Amino acid sequence: MIELSGVTKRYGPNTVVNSVSLTIPGGGVTALVGPNGAGKSSLLSMIGRLLPMDEGEIRVDGLDVSRIAGDVLAKKLSILRQENQVAVRLTVKELVEFGRFPHSRGRLTAEDGRHVEEAIDFLELAEFAGRPIDRLSGGQRQRAFIAMVLCQDTDYVLLDEPLNNLDMRHASQTMGLIRRLATELNKTIVIVLHDINFASYHADRVVAMKDGAIVADGTPREIITGPSMAEIFDLEVPVHSYADRPVAAYFAIGSRHLHGQD
Amino acid sequence: MLVDRWRTALAVRGRGIPDRGRPVLVLVLLGILLAMVTALFMTYDLKGSLDFALELRGRKVGGMLLVGFAVAYAAVLLHTITNNRILTPSLMGFDALFVLIQTGAAFLFGTLAFLAIDVRLRFGIEVGIMLAFAAILYRLLFGGENRDLFLLVLAGIITGTVFSSLTALIMRVLDPNEFLTLQDLLFANFSTVNRDLLLVSAAAVVVIIVATRPLLGQLDAVAIGREHAINLGVNHRAVVRQCLVAIAVLVSVSTALVGPVAFLGLLVSNMAYQLTGTFRHRYTPAAAGMIAAIALIGGQFILQEVFASVVRLSVIISFIGGIYFILLLLREAGR
């Protein structure tokens, strides 16, 4: 269980996360959605102790993330940020192997090797395994980083827009994989998603943020409605239903086809 | 046949990690080369009292080994914690500060009084001031919200320049006799390494190298970037703090022994990365240290025997290092 109480982050006079309290029970996929600058990434970074908070407290399975030893938390919780640059030249395999660092401190065991191989296969990276990551396409690199986090094998996985840079096939496959991590391996996923429709189909719960605060919290069906979309994104979005789930047709806004029918 | 079997053995042990045998091979070769250079330096053209000659040469070799490893370790650690391979501790003003401390002390108390202080105490005080400087750098690096590397580098370069200018100013107002003594003190070359200082320095370097050993594995994670390292459970702040302390001590050691050897660290660390083909700290600091020691001992030998000691080794190092630095910059820009 992840518990946040009164979490606040300020940059000078700007409060980017304003006293957020939230409880995420173990298991399932929780999607963080909201407009740019709503504070989703900052909140996620604070849960993953990449960013110190100014006020409040975050507990993961009862452990205070700002106090607990880093290597203890690293076996429980992993986080993947949006921009991922690596300062040294690594191959895909070397990068993925780093995911085992909390478990083996750099000395890989046979079990570590198995995890690495599984993760590489899962993300269809076998043919690039020996390639330096700076020679991959954006999508391939993104998958390599997801493989690293997967390899870390933690109960809690925090992902900041992992579908960025992925094409349709890889985006849907990756999201499917993330869903399977929750369903089959009972991991707790907290994921920042840009595309509300991925949240609609794959998340169990949608938490919407705006101006540093949580403005909506519920199942996809409760949150992805015309009125609440308008409130969260300041945009009139036509919401349809497909395969028993809401679909926000935001991509059609402004198109002559949408307006031409009136 | 034998090579093939060896390669297979390495491949099995390394579970397919590319070239895991290569860093080991490089380390072994460097070790052999270092032993050969040292043996040559110690035994070439021995005349007169064997005891005296060996003691004198042994002291020189000891000094060069210490300086080599100190400079190399400091450079590799700085590269890793800043995620940047073209910085050197000297670029950050570390050794300029050390020179300023000595010059300032000579000005305030006179070189005689300064030299009269016990070498261990003097060294302790100097290291203390260096550590304070490292603490300030650390605040700049991780104190504020924006951990800006460029700010740190800029601050380092500016403070380095300020230290050098202050040093130059003090030297100008110094009594000429004092100045001469000070100059000897500052540019003590490898030929005149103080014995007590050598022992103190050796102790310091050994302590630092042993103390940083447990860090080496974590430094691999630090090398891939701050956020990844934290995610992987590394206490990034603590590791960086310990590295800066180590750098301050190591630079103090090398500067105290032989004066500023500006580009040596940059030169040998990058050669070590290239030769070993890895960034892993199980190999790079050791490789860089051995390359530095080989360069110093070999260079000193050639200077003595070929150029009859007319040129200073540190001058040649700065010259070659400067050219290498420019090449590095050009290559980084091209990437």
Question: How would you explain this protein's 3D organization?
Answer:
The complex is a heterodimer of chains A (262) and B (335). Chain A has 262 residues and is an alpha/beta fold. Chain A has a domain at 77-153. Chain A has helices at residues 40-47, 70-73, 92-98, 101-104, 110-122, 138-152, 168-185, 196-202, 220-223, 226-233, 256-260; strands spanning 2-11, 14-24, 28-33, 55-60, 63-64, 77-80, 156-160, 188-192, 205-210, 213-218, 239-242, 245-248. In chain A, β1 (2-11) and β2 form a beta hairpin. A six-stranded mixed beta sheet of chain A has the order 6-7-8-3-9-10, with helices on both faces. Chain A has a four-stranded antiparallel beta sheet with strand order 2-1-4-5, covered by helices on one side. Chain A contains eleven helices and twelve strands. Chain B is mainly alpha-helical and 335 residues long. Chain B has one domain: Orthogonal Bundle (ABC transporter involved in vitamin B12 uptake, BtuC). Chain B has 15 helices and no strands. In chain B, α3 (50-82) packs parallel to α9 and α3 packs across α14. Chain B is globular and about 60 Å long. The two termini of chain B are 39 Å apart. At the A-B interface, α2, β6 and α3 of A face α10 and α11 of B.
